[in-house]
């Protein structure tokens, strides 16, 4: 309180003195300003030259004095004789004061004892345009007026001091109370002991502590901070940027920004810095040395990245059993996590599924990198590596090769010096060549190239590359083995499918087959010529993939050929095929491990170009589509039937009449069924693609494939499009034969006339013999009705129909037998002969080769 009172008294004295000084100075300035203003007023010089200057100047001076707030304005001549004064009786008397400086042209102020008492006055010259002083003007204030102003300010000053004293008293009390509360009432000894403890802890902790002020000076630095930052002993109190600490640390301290666990490099140390502002006056900073922790973290991060790379490789490599795709996946996984560029070179036989031998040429199978303008060998190149190259050494020994510096690798440069120079000039500076070795066989070499990171590959990178390639090699070998099996299955599949469809006149055919991308299945199709100018159309699908499915497909296709040679109806043919599949399963031809014949589907159709009827039956297969000549496309309402191999259910046939030019479309489910779309959508797209009457089968096939063929088929696809033809009345002749042996000669004569009309006189004799034997047998051993039909197509077919289902048998007759040689004679005279059954009986037919193609087709 005493200090506050002394300060207040001193402040009061200083304020009073300063106030008086300021008021005196203000009085002098105001006097000069008023005197100069009046001296420069218009008309003053004319008034001085007038006969009675006082009469003009006295009232003007008094009015101006009152307005300006001064005590007097006196106008005088250069001798000091007054022309105006607040006391009119003083006019004409000599001015009290010093006028010499003003007569000389200067502005002069002084304090004098004048007529009004103690005065502060200013004397200003009145100068003519020629620069001559023609008069003087004096203005001023009395000291009494000046003192009055100061005295009026004194109560305000005293009041301010009293208020300040009161505030100081209250503030002192509040601060004392707050300090007592914050120190919990501790006395000076306790506070001293606490400070000593605080100082000891501050300088003994293993964490640096810094405190800076708002001007960037270092206020506090404990021992650990000094050790970590290399601070001098006299660092406290000096500017932060002048104590020799690291530049980045100094910039952080001077910035004053908030920092949380920010890592800074200071010399050979990594420091973790936290900074918080302590208000506008500075910041508090803590520092931890994380050099060793960072080293451990770096090793842990390296291990984590290594494990992640291997984990990604396990999931991303080998998604398909395709050698090229697997090589690409391997290259993509390693870029940019491990290398900047990766190339995979496989021995050329590996791409075909074969096992490579020593010294095989390498095919660049995959390339991946951070840029595409690299000078490495392009994709698809066939490379013969020289023995001096790391690739050749790695392929030969099965051991990975590390080339830390490609600049200094003469063996590698010898392979292709211009390209090697271009690679080095591009910035690629380090290489690891790791062989793809699986099950004791080296399949190729994986090359890891580094360009962006300045440090070369090291031994740790080499071990990682070996582990990565070792994992991928097994997948690559699996893909190679699958490729070999796939090629074998495709070869077997294509060898079992028809290469060239047989010649026939019933239909125009377009077909398509494509194996699945992931494995050959058991889809097949076939076109089988049948007696009577008919044709059998078949499409099937064996469940499963691989060699077993392809082999089973071949067996079923052969069975269909054999059953069709018996001229069985479609439903009966499927029944026999169903029994065959059941026997194959029972005989152990298939097991779950080899993807055996758990079933198969089939659709069999027989088209007769004479009646234009098509009889069809299906066993669990997709229904056929029928395209009418006007473009109307319908899905046939054909009973589905169970898939082959289930047994126990009969098959049903459906007969359709098909106009000439109609198209019958048979297909497997791989065409219309796909993961990305529903099967009903696939059928609708197929129907839309076929609804064009102006297209031939080949054009229809292209339209269907454009609309439905997947890029990577997941299942086999078989497609068969048949456009129907007819044998017109001019190529068919038939007669009903009375059930009397005497009528045989008449029928022979009709047949001879018809052959003459067709220009086939050369076949008349043999035809008459064939008909004579067949008709005689029908009348003798069969039942009515008997009918004869001749068909002129690519062959001449003789058909004899009867009402009996008894099958004739070809046999050798003894020399003593009177008969039994009729069918033997028919077999010798004809190219082919046989029997087929109808609901009304049977048909015995015989085919003869036409003399010329011209007569057959004319």
UniProtKB/TrEMBL annotation:
It comes from Streptomyces flavochromogenes. The lineage of its organism: Bacteria, Bacillati, Actinomycetota, Actinomycetes, Kitasatosporales. Its main location: membrane. InterPro entries: Bact_Sigma-Reg (IPR052016), GAF (IPR003018), GAF-like_dom_sf (IPR029016), HATPase_C_sf (IPR036890), HATPase_dom (IPR003594), PAS (IPR000014), PAS-like_dom_sf (IPR035965), PPM-type-like_dom_sf (IPR036457). The chain crosses the membrane at residues 154-175. This is SpoIIE family protein phosphatase. PANTHER family: STAGE II SPORULATION PROTEIN E, STAGE II SPORULATION PROTEIN E-RELATED. Keywords: ATP-binding, Cell membrane, Hydrolase, Kinase, Membrane, Nucleotide-binding, Phosphoprotein, Transferase, Transmembrane, Transmembrane helix, Two-component regulatory system. It is a multi-pass membrane protein. It comes from the Bacteria.
């Amino acid at each position: 309180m005493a200090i506050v009172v002394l300060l207040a008294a001193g402040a009061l004295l200083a304020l009073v003195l300063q106030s008086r000084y300021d008021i005196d100075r203000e009085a002098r300035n105001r006097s000069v300003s008023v005197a100069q203003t009046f001296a420069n007023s218009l008309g003053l010089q004319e008034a001085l030259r007038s006969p009675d200057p006082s009469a003009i100047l006295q009232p003007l001076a008094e009015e101006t004095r009152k307005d300006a707030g001064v005590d007097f304005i006196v106008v005088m001549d250069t001798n000091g004789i007054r022309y105006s004064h607040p006391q009119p009786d003083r006019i004409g008397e000599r001015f009290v004061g010093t006028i010499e400086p003003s007569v000389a042209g200067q502005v002069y102020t002084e304090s004098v004892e004048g007529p009004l008492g103690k005065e502060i006055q200013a004397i200003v010259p009145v100068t003519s345009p020629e620069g001559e002083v023609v008069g003087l003007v004096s203005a001023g204030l009395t000291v009494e007026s000046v003192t009055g102003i100061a005295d009026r300010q004194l109560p305000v000053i005293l009041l301010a001091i009293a208020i300040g004293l009161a505030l100081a008293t209250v503030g002192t009390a509040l601060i004392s109370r707050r300090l007592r509360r914050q120190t919990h009432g501790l006395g000076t000894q306790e506070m001293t002991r606490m400070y000593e403890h605080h100082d000891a802890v501050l300088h003994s902790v293993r964490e640096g502590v810094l405190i800076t002020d708002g001007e960037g000076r270092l206020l506090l630095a404990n021992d650990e901070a000094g050790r970590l930052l290399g601070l001098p002993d006299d660092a406290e109190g000096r500017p932060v940027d002048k104590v020799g600490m690291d530049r980045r640390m100094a910039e952080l301290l001077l910035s004053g920004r908030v920092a949380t666990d920010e890592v800074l490099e200071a010399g050979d140390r990594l420091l973790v810095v936290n900074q918080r502002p302590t208000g506008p006056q500075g910041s508090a900073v803590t520092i931890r040395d994380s050099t060793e922790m960072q080293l451990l973290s770096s090793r842990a991060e390296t291990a984590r990245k290594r494990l992640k790379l291997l984990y990604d490789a396990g999931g991303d490599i080998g998604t398909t059993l395709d050698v090229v795709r697997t090589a690409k996946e391997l290259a993509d996984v390693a870029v940019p996590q491990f290398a900047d560029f990766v190339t995979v070179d496989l021995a050329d036989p590996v791409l075909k599924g074969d096992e490579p031998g020593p010294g095989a040429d390498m095919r660049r199978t995959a390339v991946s990198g951070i840029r595409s303008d690299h000078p490495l060998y392009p994709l698809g190149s066939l490379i013969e590596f020289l023995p001096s190259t790391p690739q050749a050494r790695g392929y030969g020994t099965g051991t990975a090769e590390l080339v830390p510096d490609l600049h200094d690798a003469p063996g590698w440069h010898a392979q292709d010096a211009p390209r090697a120079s271009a690679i080095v000039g591009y910035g690629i500076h380090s290489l690891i060549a790791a062989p793809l070795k699986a099950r004791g066989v080296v399949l190729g070499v994986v090359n890891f190239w580094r360009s962006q990171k300045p440090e070369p590959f090291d031994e740790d990178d080499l071990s990682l590359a070996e582990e990565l390639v070792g994992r991928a090699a097994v997948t690559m070998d699996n893909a190679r083995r699958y490729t070999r099996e796939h090629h074998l299955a495709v070869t077997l599949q294509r060898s079992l499918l028809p290469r060239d469809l047989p010649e026939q006149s019933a239909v125009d055919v377009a077909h398509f087959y494509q194996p699945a991308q992931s494995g050959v299945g058991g889809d097949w199709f076939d076109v089988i010529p049948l007696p009577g100018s008919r044709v059998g159309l078949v499409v099937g699908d064996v469940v499963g993939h691989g060699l077993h499915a392809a082999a089973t497909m071949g067996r079923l296709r052969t069975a269909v050929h054999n059953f069709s040679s018996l001229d069985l109806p479609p439903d009966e043919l499927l029944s026999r095929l169903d029994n065959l599949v059941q026997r194959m399963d029972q005989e152990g031809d298939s097991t779950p491990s080899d993807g055996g014949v758990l079933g198969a589907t089939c659709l069999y159709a027989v088209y007769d170009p004479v009646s234009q009827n098509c009889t069809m039956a299906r066993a669990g297969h997709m229904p056929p589509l029928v395209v009418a000549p006007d473009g109307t496309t319908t899905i046939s309402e054909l009973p589905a039937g169970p898939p082959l191999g289930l047994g126990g259910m009969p098959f049903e046939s459906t007969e359709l009449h098909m106009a000439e030019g109609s198209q019958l479309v048979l297909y497997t489910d791989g065409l219309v069924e796909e993961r990305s779309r529903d099967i009903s959508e696939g059928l609708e797209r197929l129907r839309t693609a076929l609804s064009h009457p102006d297209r031939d089968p080949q054009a229809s096939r292209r339209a269907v494939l454009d609309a439905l063929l997947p890029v990577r088929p997941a299942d086999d696809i078989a497609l068969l499009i048949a456009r129907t033809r007819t044998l017109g009345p001019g190529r068919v002749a038939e007669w009903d034969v009375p059930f009397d042996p005497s009528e045989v000669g008449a029928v022979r004569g009709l047949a001879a006339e018809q052959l003459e009309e067709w220009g086939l006189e050369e076949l008349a004799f043999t035809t008459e013999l064939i008909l004579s034997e067949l008709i005689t047998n029908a009348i003798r051993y069969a039942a009515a009705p008997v009918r004869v039909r001749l068909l002129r197509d690519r062959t001449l077919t003789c058909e004899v129909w009867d009402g009996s289902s008894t099958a004739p048998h070809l046999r050798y007759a003894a020399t003593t037998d009177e008969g039994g040689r009729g069918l033997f004679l028919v077999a010798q005279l004809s190219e082919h002969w046989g029997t087929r059954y109808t609901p009304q009986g049977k048909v015995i037919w015989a085919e003869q080769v036409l003399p010329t193609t011209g007569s057959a087709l004319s």
